[in-house]
Amino acid sequence: MTGRQRPHLTLIGAIDDATGKVPYALFREREDAQGYFLLLRQIVASYGIPMALYHDRHGIFEHSKREPESLEEQLEERKKPTQFGRLMEELGITSIPSRSPQARGRIERLWGTFQDRLVSELRLAEARTIEEANQVLWNFLPRYNQRFAISATQPGSAYRRPDEGFIPDELFCFKYYRTVGRDNVVRFLEHRLQIMPINGRLSYTSARVEVHERLDGSLAVYYRGIAWLLNQHRRRLQCSE
Prior knowledge:
Blueprint: E1 10-14, E2 24-28, H1 33-46, E3 49-50, E4 52-55, H2 71-79, H3 83-91, E5 94-97, H4 105-125, H5 130-148, E6 159-160, E7 173-179, E8 185-188, E9 191-194, E10 208-214, E11 219-223, E12 226-231, E13 236-240
Parallel strand pairs: 4-5
Antiparallel strand pairs: 1-2, 3-6, 7-10, 8-9, 10-11, 11-12, 12-13
């Protein structure tokens, strides 16, 4: 979407390889991991967890192939997936990286179709903001699917229901490991997250905790089944089990 007072936007989307249906898509200011988290979260909420994801070799999906500086770094790179790679592992989604645009034929053809039809829709609607563009897109997708989606050649679904007790916020987030300081504080970016006592334990000094940065910007700290959720108003962590 370009033109006077219209920002350059990036379209992120997915297509069901069996039916040609577009389960979800959204505009972002740039291609980023959060956009793919939002994309997959909506697909899971609407259809279930897909069996596999076929994707390009962007750094969002897998680490670049640069030469690590040391053996230790090589070992660490092999063990540690990207944030989106970790999400796919936790959801049990098979990751299938493609080697060329030709191998991604269906999605590449989709972008070609959208370049023609969707751009025209945006112009007709005079969309000038990312919010307006997304509304046009979400109104357009049902009409597109009704016209172009087909029935799968094999019965059944390639999506599965999440397990009982599935909590989206605990998976669809960015996860980082931190060590609690002597003052019972976890440092994360500009934040100082105070770990409050629970179950008679007063100190968590040197404990290895997991900090979750959620898609809405809120933070949570997890340690052995205990969660401290950041109260945005008081800027303190509240505990839940």
